Amino acid sequence: MAQAITLNSGRAAQVARSPLRRRRSPLQRKAFPYLLVAPAVIYLLGITFYPGLYAIYQSLFRVRFNSWTFIGLDNYSKLLADNEFWASLWNTFLMGSGALLLEFLIALTLAALAYRDPFIRSWRIVFLLPMLFMPSAVSFIWKLAFNDGRVVSDLLMRIGLIGQPLDFLGDVWLARLSLIITDVWQWTPFLFVIFVAALQGQDAEIEEAARLDGARWSQIFWNISLPMLRPIIAVALVLRGIDIVTMFTSIFIITGGTPGGATETMSYFIYRTGFKRFDFGYASAASVLLLALTVIIAQSFVKRFFRSGRD
Asked: How many helices (H) and strands (E) does the chain have?
């Protein structure tokens, strides 16, 4: 008994001698998460925010290498009257919307089949292979297929659809179609992955209840799954649309903006203005306008779809 009392008193003395833990104040507890993400935020601001401000500043000057002449908003007024700028903007919209529409339809169809069909589900990894290649390698492959090797023309001639080889890079619509096919082939898997993950994340009990009520698979998909996917679809299309706006590699390798500038997008217009004409201020003004248009359209699109998703 005496030994137990001595042991307990020793533990009490040890606890009394140990320093008490300092509790963080409410301000410290609130600031701690921000301190953890601060390095990443600083890094991202350094590689995005600073170049954006620098482009806005540079767009107010006529820049010729080391010669900077302040001209105010003249670059913007000149840009709005430039037919080449509006043509490149139209080409970006035309080819981008066509590629995005095809990618959306194909990816949604494959995702629905992979979600329902066990056989197609087992081949999901195959659908992701095009996205694993470098864009430059994909562009060279399709340039070889369309133009240099005339693989596509030979196949169409063998099955009797055409009588002579097609000049894909000499015709306006065929050149645009070649770029759309190249983009669709490589980046459809990006939307496919998002749609499959969204379908698998939906509540299975809702589908089971509809199935018990006698609903067919098509009715479940169109009336239940697809409406629940609308916010996810909005985000996926915005992310892919932003990437399409900056389409450059395939144009640089396959068409070079030809024929007659029919495949020149905004990214290639900015490249040609800055690195071929060496008019960096004018190129910066085009970049700022492109960024502003992209942000406005993306924000409006996402806001509308998320509001519809909540309703």
From this structure: 16, 2
Query: Domain coordinates of the chain in residue numbers?
Result: 23-58, 75-305
For residue 240, give the nearest of 296, 184, 288, 285 by alpha carbon: 184
Q: How many degrees, rounded to 5, is the angle at CA 178 between CA 172 and CA 181?
A: 140
d(CA 148, CA 254): 10
- Give the model's pLDDT for residue 29: 82
| Residue 286 exposure: Cα atoms within 13 Å on the Cβ side | 28
Tokens representing 301?
Answer: 């699109």
Q: pLDDT tens digits, residue range 104-126?
A: 999 999 998 888 877 777 777 88
Alpha-helical segments (H) within 117-225 = 118-121, 124-127, 129-132, 135-143, 151-158, 172-200, 204-212, 217-220
CA pair distance 169, 254, nearest whole angstrom: 8
- Please give the distance of CA 18 from its chain centroid, rounded to a whole number: 56
Please name the CATH architecture into which domain 75-305 falls.
Orthogonal Bundle (1.10)
User: What is the distance, to the nearest Å, from the Cα of residue 64 to the centroid of all Cα atoms in its chain?
Assistant: 33
User: What's the pTM?
Assistant: 0.83
Using one digit for the tens of pLDDT, what is the confidence trace for 21-76? 567 777 888 888 888 888 988 888 888 888 889 999 999 999 987 889 999 999 99
Q: Which residues 6+ apart lie within 8 Å of 98 measured at CB?
A: 176, 180
Q: Kindly state the tokens that stand for 64.
A: 């010729």
